[in-house]
Write a structure and sequence with these properties.
The protein is mainly β. The protein is built from no helices and eight strands.
Length: 122
């Protein structure tokens, strides 16, 4: 898998939230993938909120795996920013059992990445 959207049709055995810095997805095939950010000098990217229960993603094929980004605050969020630039990244996942949205927040001095990466977990 190369993209987050490639999770559609896959079945998860486990989803682990590691310190609001990464999510590790274990597939029923034994493969592991993660959402994470390789931190650089002058930026910060972390999980700000999870809506829904990660446990509802386990044992049933993924029907929706979608990434959406925005440079505007979500409804109901009045975050005051310390840096020059920020990005919200939303990861939406759904199975027959439930729906989960993972909201990441990244901020920087404009010269650094605020994005979330998806790849093989080692």
């Amino acid at each position: 898998m190369e993209k987050f959207e490639d999770l559609v049709g896959k079945t998860l055995l486990n989803v682990e939230n590691i310190g609001n810095e990464e999510l590790v997805f274990t597939l029923d095939t034994g493969e592991k993938y993660k959402l994470y950010h390789d931190r650089d000098c002058c930026e910060s990217v972390s999980i700000e909120d999870i809506t829904g229960e990660l446990s509802e993603l386990i044992g049933t094929p993924i029907l929706l795996a979608e990434e959406v980004t925005s440079d505007k605050n979500p409804i109901g969020v009045t975050k005051e920013y310390q840096e020059d630039s920020f990005t919200w990244t939303f990861y939406k996942l759904a199975t027959m059992k439930g729906y989960v949205t993972v909201r990441w927040y990244g901020e920087s001095k404009r010269h650094y990445s605020e994005s979330v990466d998806f790849g093989i977990a080692k």
